[in-house]
Amino acid sequence: MTTPRSRSTASVPQAQHPYKVMALYKFAALPDAESLVAPLGAFCRERGIKGTLILAPEGVNGTVAGAPAAIDALADHLFATGPFGTRLAGAEVKYSSAATAPFLRMKVRLKPEIVTLRAPEADPSQRVGTYVEPQDWNALISRNDVVLVDTRNDYEVGLGTFRRALDPSTSSFVDFKNYVARHLDPGRDRKIAMFCTGGIRCEKASSYLLSQGFEEVFHLKGGILKYLEVIPPGQSRFEGECFVFDERVSVIHGLEPGTATLCRACRHPLTEADRSHADFAEGVSCSHCAHDAAKSHAAAERQRQMTLARERGGAHLGDAAALEAERGRRRKALRAERSRRLASRLFKGEAAG
């Protein structure tokens, strides 16, 4: 059986890596979500798929990775032949690839919401804002009468965002409601454009804004990930890298891995500048957690155990991960430099034209 295509299918070549990554979400009525958790987990584990899938009465959300054939089988299971029937057909799905396994284990979780806002009046299955294709996004956000809002959390915005975008400075999506109440006005802000990583937050945020009396609400279809996939670097208005919730940490144009890494103490994403900060100590602390004595102590002890294991000729549980992180950072730096060179050539070509 042919698996239904997602609403955001790949349109640029992807590197031929051994792992296929599938990010997906769909707001759909799943009153039987609890009974679907265990069978879905078993289906994935039997095929070596790893990652996280969240099921809730309002739908599904998650990112998983595995062998290409395994991910294709999961897509068919979710959208056509499995116990979900056709309820997830038309889900927002994005595919990419990875050279190394992005996840360590497989988790299927049952939650009250697939993206937590705690606002019952926001129901994307009933009403959402206007979808804007990535190819039309630049024109929309260039308008002076459009208020551009990044709906992601502060640490995500810190890695990269669109020019002119407002940063709500939230640490949780639940805080977005307070930001709207304090900083946005339906009488003043007549046109609002929003974006997030893959589109799911914006669907819920747009539904919430409409419930609060905002009349014209737009959101980037497929999110930043789709934009980075299909918009050439020379035409991009996105600055920096896009944070993703797996071991890649961040991605750039073409959905290639970026240069960001994670602090192993506090899990905050780190840029090259962060790693050059005086408070950064590999595996121990960064500028975001250096003054948190408990986290720094725990990380320092973990780093000490890893060092002792190496000296004894053994291996610590976190040793391989740390070494792979270092190798990954070097690979990311090389890919990022190639991407910057490509963007520069494209820009010069357009200028000459």
Tell me what the structure shows.
With 353 residues, the chain is an alpha/beta fold. The protein has a domain at 19-110: Alpha-Beta Plaits (2-Layer Sandwich). Helix content is 35%, strand content 19%. It has 10 helices and 15 strands. The protein has helices spanning 33-46, 68-81, 134-141, 154-157, 176-183, 200-211, 223-230, 272-275, 293-311, 319-352, and strands at residues 19-27, 50-56, 59-66, 92-98, 106-110, 130-132, 147-150, 160-162, 191-195, 216-220, 238-240, 242-243, 250-251, 261-262, 269-270. The strands form 5 sheets. Strands 4-1-3-2-5 form a 5-stranded mixed sheet. The chain starts with 18 loop residues before the first strand and ends with a helix.
Q: What would CATH call the architecture of the domain at 19-110?
A: 2-Layer Sandwich
Distance between the termini: 47 Å
Query: What is the CATH third-level topology name of the domain at 19-110?
Result: Alpha-Beta Plaits
Q: Sum up the overall morphology in one term.
A: globular
Major sheet strand order = 4-1-3-2-5
Q: On the 0-100 scale, what is the average pLDDT? A: 85
Written as H for each helix and E for each strand, in order along the chain, the element string is EHEEHEEEHEHEHEHEHEEEEEHHH
Structural class by helix and strand composition: alpha/beta
Portion of residues within helices: 25-40%
Low-confidence stretches: 1-14, 315-327, 346-353
The CATH C-level name of the domain at 19-110 is: Alpha Beta
Instruction: Give the DSSP E fraction (strand runs of 2 or more residues).
Output: 15-25%
| Sheet having the most strands | 5 strands, mixed
Radius of gyration: 21 Å
**Total E-strand runs:** 15
Count of discrete alpha- or pi-helical segments spanning 4 or more residues: 10
| Oligomer state of the chains in this structure | single chain
